[in-house]
Amino acid sequence: MGKVIAFLVLMLVAPAAYAVNYTVGNSSGWNTGVDYNAWATGQTFTTADALVFNYGPTHAVHIVANAEDYFDCDDDMPRGIYRTSPTTIQLNVTGPWYFICPTDNHCEAGQRLTVNVTAAASIPPAASPPPSGGSVPPTPAGTPPGTPPSMATPPGTPPSMATPPPPPPSAAAGLKVGLISLVMAALTGLLV
């Protein structure tokens, strides 16, 4: 019985272990003289992840709204302003995120980062049967998909330019399924 309980606890806790906190710039932190886009190349960022910015008092982190503001180092209307290190930003929306340091031309000197965030891998819920009568209920009223958020969007939330197609399966998702299968097989062997 104890093994069954341990197995159930493991299965409930395991998905939380897949979120990653990325330290921007690794040991270099958020400073001038670092190629942040090279740092981000090859990394997969999902809505389960967070970016951790470590910086000194002469730096800041601003989330800007779009690529134009990013390339122009324009922080006139930032989505988020952070001035206390370390700053942890939860990547809670899919799509491109743009970060700059607006202090003393740091952005113009290359202290900026863009990442593309994809949906975190999850196990899809079981499909529910259609309601009696075979009709599908209408879509609830609300903001149509792809509509950019208003400026009332909370800081830290980048705009949605359009609804992107679902991302292709990532290696991390396959690794997660494989790891869970391996754990289940091992525990099944212990239970038998």
TrEMBL record:
- Chain positions covered by the region annotation Disordered: 124-170
Please give the Gene Ontology molecular function terms for this protein: metal ion binding
**Could you read off the lineage of the organism from its UniProt record?**
Eukaryota, Viridiplantae, Streptophyta, Embryophyta, Tracheophyta
Biased composition annotated in UniProt, kind: Pro residues: 126-170
Keywords, comma-separated and alphabetical: Glycoprotein, Metal-binding, Signal
Q: What is this protein called?
A: Phytocyanin domain-containing protein
The UniProt record lists the Phytocyanin domain at 20-119
Report the PROSITE patterns cross-referenced here: PHYTOCYANIN
Which organism encodes this protein? Answer: Castilleja foliolosa
The signal sequence is: 1-19
Name the InterPro entries on file: Cupredoxin, Phytocyanin-like, Phytocyanin_dom
